[in-house]
Design goal:
single chain, alpha/beta, TIM Barrel, three-stranded antiparallel β-sheet
Length: 348
């Protein structure tokens, strides 16, 4: 009998952020015990040749990754590897430590299998992340970058430059986060002028891939235009999408923070679909938002994503979700006669 539904009932009696803290503590304990991560990996990592692909100069054992925001400070990367992810993205990290927004700032909407968060880039800062990432490199690893809340918009470029210089040697790709709704003024930086300046700076600092994460609340034509500018300016990929501020999706939702989970599914897919039609073959697309099954991953891959990320579904479905998604994905590929994941990317 699965144990997670029982554990979830207990955890859901607590504040959502407190529950997350317990989960992270369990992961940190697991990776501190000799041999536990290796046992977990043997049990959970689904990585047959059919699911493997090479992107950004690294082999991804399967297409299911962990989205940024779950392990903000890179404290449990080895344990997360043991859950069966094909890659992990840590952060969002800012140059200086910051506490984030006042609590409570993380809320569940169980009937909608969704979350609402207004965390505000709470993290221990770049120096602490550099220390944790040193020598840590198993699965492909991405780092999500954001500006400090106290940094005025006219100095935002300085924050991103600091982060790129400080972290590019410790990961496989970097993500420019301009789309979180929880840092005042951040989404205003989703414009052509700032993107060209930032990406021009970035490609002069590092050869590591720079990805741009976009909001789901853009009109599809706006999203396409922004992504075309990003790719032209040197971005190696697009992550679509961040959380949404469309509070009409959940009756009674608070009027702050961002919504994730099932309520985001179709908005996220619509942006992916539009961007993929415009940029197919020109950049790497990573889809995130409302993904909770192998069938949904299959839909995103067929729409043009090379990789996907999950977060909220992990809270509702439990730590075995990456393995179950990849097993279902393999069954769907076998059903359709696909020998390799590359055969289905963009096939729709």
């Amino acid at each position: 009998m699965p144990i997670y539904p029982f554990l979830r009932r207990l955890l859901f009696r607590l504040d959502a952020e407190a529950s997350h803290g317990i989960g992270m503590a369990a992961l940190r304990t697991a990776q501190a015990l000799p041999g536990v991560t290796e046992v977990l990996t043997r049990r959970n990592l689904v990585a047959p040749e059919a699911l493997r692909q090479t992107l950004f100069g690294r082999e991804f054992p399967n297409p299911v990754g962990l989205a940024a925001g779950f392990d903000k400070d890179a404290v449990a990367v080895r344990a997360l590897t043991g859950l069966g992810f094909g890659f992990v993205e840590v952060g969002t990290v800012t140059p200086l430590p910051q506490p984030g927004n006042p609590r409570p700032r993380l809320f569940r909407h169980p009937a909608k299998r969704s979350l609402q968060n207004s965390l505000g880039f709470n993290n221990t800062g770049m120096a602490a992340m550099r220390h944790r990432l040193a020598g840590l490199h198993s699965l492909p690893l991405g780092v999500n970058l954001g500006k400090n809340k106290a940094t005025p918009p006219e100095r935002a470029l300085d924050d991103y430059e600091t982060l790129i210089r400080g972290l590019h040697e410790l990961c496989d790709y970097l993500v420019v986060n301009l789309s979180s709704p929880n840092t005042p003024g951040l989404r205003d930086l989703q414009n052509e002028t700032f993107l060209r300046s930032l990406l021009g700076l970035a490609v002069g600092i590092t050869a590591k891939p720079i990805l741009v994460k976009i909001a789901p609340d853009l009109e599809p034509v706006q999203a396409v235009a922004l992504c075309e500018v990003a790719v032209e300016a040197g971005a190696a990929g697009i992550i679509a999408t961040n959380t949404t501020v469309d509070y009409s999706l959940i009756p009674g939702a608070r009027d702050f923070g961002g919504l994730s989970g099932q309520v985001l599914r179709e908005k996220s897919f619509a942006i992916l679909e539009a961007v993929a039609k415009a940029l197919s073959g020109r950049t790497v697309l990573i889809s995130v938002g409302g993904i909770d099954s192998g069938a949904e991953v299959y839909r995103r891959l067929r729409a043009g994503a090379s990789l996907v990320q999950i977060y909220t579904a992990l809270i509702y479905e439990g730590p075995s979700l990456p393995r179950r998604i990849n097993e279902e994905l393999l069954r769907l590929m076998e059903r359709d006669g696909a020998k390799s994941i590359c055969e289905i990317i963009g096939a729709g």
